[in-house]
Structure formats: structure tokens, C-alpha cells
Amino acid sequence: MSGTFLGMPSLPVFGTGNLHEHEPFPKAAHRELGNTQLRANLGHATGTIRDKRLAVVSELPDWEGLREAGRAIKESVMARLPDLLEKFEANFTARGGKIHWARDAGEANAIVASLIREQGADEVVKVKSMATQEIGLNEYLEDQGIAAFETDLAELIVQLDHDKPSHILVPAIHKNRTQVRDIFLREMEGVDPDLTNEPARLAAAARAHLRRKFLSAKVAVSGANFALADSGTLAVVESEGNGRMCLTLPETLITVMGVEKLLPSWEDLEVFMQLLPRSSTGERMNPYTSLWTGVTPDDGPQNVHLVLLDNGRSAALADEMGRSALHCIRCSACMNVCPVYERTGGHAYGSTYPGPIGAILSPLLTGITAEENNSLPYASSLCGACYDACPVKINIPDILVHLRGEDVDSKRGKKKLPSQMDLGMKAASWALSSGRNLGLVEKALPLGRLAAGPDRKITKLPGIAAGWTQSRDIPAPPGQSFRQWWDKEHRAPAGPAESTAPVEGPEGES
Fold first, then answer.
1. pTM
2. 340 with 26: CB under 8 angstroms?
3. What percent of the chain is modeled with pLDDT above 70?
């Protein structure tokens, strides 16, 4: 084979943007665990959503059948993704829409900015979109002199507070009503200074603020929950109606969507419109579902664009074990049942995608060898609750174990200073390699009894072993090992008469 470069991109192309940890998960999680307000807010919110979800799911006798259908459809989509993308593009463009392909976050941001400039606009309204969070679109547009206004209420709260979302479905889940009122009073122009923390009054203040933006914006940016290949139709599912305002009032609509959001046909949408609301908000049906197919003369946006985003999805698809992470429909059910997420919150994960799905999706998009994300697969107790809750049966625990193996393999052969764990394992290997070595180690047992003190308990160990004694004590070691006891009992000189008394065991082992 010739070594001549033919201009073809090398694979895999990993994702860029807001997909990386800013610090290792254990360090970030340890800090977040000290935030008692965060833990109280998360515990209340996730507990409420869990109960609602269980109630509506139990109403359906064929729930498991729906989950299996969702899994099968998504698996079929991934198996024939190139063909479905071509089919969708043909139908979307035939109805007046324009498709733009973006390999990574940089390309997607540049495309959106150029489309906004074409309209002579310097501000846009946005409806909730994980894809634009993933590529850091708001920050990029700000650098380009374009203001982006979030219209989803929770996204608006987070944006006004110069914060980051911490939950896929409820981005401001880590804030309570009083905190929201304080943000509105501080950041929102023209707000009533006597604003209280009553939900109705907070919603009215946000509505008045957003209505002005809806009526003045010429360009809107949206995400999409689903794209139907057989008709070129896009779909957005939401709860507030702000998305519908974004999708219909401006002259130009730009949608940014990951390539994995495709469904083959309208019939397939029926399955997911039952799975998604129940799994996300615990509702039988979401309040607003908007679908649009190209351009309709004199009705709605007359310039309709779609940026189809890869940003590491091809790399994830190439991973046979991990590719099912792309089945995710962003319902957040896995987060609401995860004991790790409930205690640490979303910011500890660093990436746009927190919780159990983020612990596998982010490393798959960026590559597990990217050291900025290699602690995420360990951010789980492997209890399996996420697998039981997932509406499309993504086996998150198995993928976590797979990624941990990939992480270990990626470090083989790299020279580094040995950690405490490395030294401990080497010492254990030496001690257990022969009976003589183990016997030498056992001679140190009296030192352990000395450390235990008169109450015969070791309450604090040094180094990484300190984690063991944070929540438990270790009993003092016996005065002699089993081997020493055995030698004493069975190699002692034979006496004149064999004793019939019961044999006393080694101290501490009875």
C-alpha cells in the first residue's frame, strides 16, 4: 500500500468542546460532597421525579416491551446510520431546508456564526439544546459579538447566574426557589423589586423578560430530540412552550443536532413518545411537541438550517462494546436513580453530560486515552440501577467496566512513579509468592497488636488504607498466625499420653 496522503480524514475523530473533566472526578466529587445545600436540593428533586416515574411506568402493562422496542430501533439505526443520514438529507433539502455537516465543535460553531451574520443579526434566542452546550456555542458566539439568550426557564436561570447546567433535564436542579429569586433580582432588568420566591411570580417575571426577546429576535437556535429519515422532519419535546415560540417566530431557524438522533420513520416516533416523557419528567405525555418539515411559504421561519454534528460520535460508533451509549435519548432517568450523582451533583463530572450516561458517553466521544476523562468510568458503584431505569436498555455498568479496562490498557508501558497502590500490590505479590516470605510477614503481627492498644482496635490506618478505617475499625491481629499455631500443635515432641482435651485454636480465630 502506498503511503501517499489522499486527503481522507484519519479515524477516529474525537470530540472537542465541553466534553472534558476540568479535574479528576474523585477530587471534584470530594469538594461537592461538602455542599449541604446542593445535596438537599438534589435529594428532594431526584426523589420527586423518581416517584412520579415509577407511578406512570407502572400504569403500562407493556412497559418492558416498549423498552425492548426502543432498544431494537436504536440498534437498527446505528447499524445503518450512513444510509439513514443520506435519506434524511434528501428529504430535508427537498422540502426547503439546508444541511450543514460539522466534524467537530469548531466547525459547528463557525457554521452557526456565519449563518447568523448572513442575517445581519447580533443576537439570537435559543431553545434548550444539549448539542450546543456540548460545543460551547454560547461562549463562541459571545466572542464573535453575538448575544445568545436561553429561553428554557432552567437554562435561563443558569445563564443569568453565570453557572453551568448540572442535570440534563433540569439544568438548575441544584438551585432552590430562593436562590432563583435572588438571581432574578440581581441579573434581570426591570424585575419587580418586591419579587417573592413563589413559583407563579418567578415564572411571570421570566415570561415578561423572554417575551421581549421572542418578538425582537430574527434568528433562533434550537436542538432536536428526534429526526425522521422518511420525511426529513425534526422534533422538539418540551414542557414550557418557549421552544415553540423559538421555532415559529424568528425568520431564520438554525438547529444543531447529533447524528445519532435519527429515527427511520414516523411509526418509530410512537415508541419514543411513550418512553421519553415517562422516563424524564414522570408524565404520560409532555405538554408541547413541535415538529417541522422544511419551509412553508409565509408561515414560520423561511430560512431553515440543520447542522449535523459528529464530534466524536463516529469514534463511539466504532467501539463495538460502547456504541450503545449513542442510543441515549437524554431522558436523565439514569441520573435520578444514581446514588453517586445524587450526592455529588452534575458539576463534579465536568462534561456537559453528567451522571451515569455522562460517565460513559463523554469518554467515548473524546477517547478514553484522553487523560482529562479517564476518571469518569470509575464514577459509579456499579449497582446497576441506571440499567434498570434506562428506557432503551443501555447496559451502562458493562460499558463502565469495559472503559475501565481500556483505561488500564492505555497506561500499560508508560513510565511513571509507582503509586501507593502499586507498591502495596508489589509487596503483596512478594509476601504471597512463598510460605517463607509469608512467614516473615507474620512475624510483624505483634506490632499490629501494639498499634491496636488496650481496646484491641485499630481506628486509623495511614495512606490509601485510611479509606478503610473512615467508617469501620479493624480488630487487633491475633497473637500468633495460623501457621505458627499449626507448627506448635503438630510438631511438638510426643508426650507420654495423647490428650483428649479439645484443641484450642489460635487466639482471635474462634
1. 0.81
2. no
3. 93
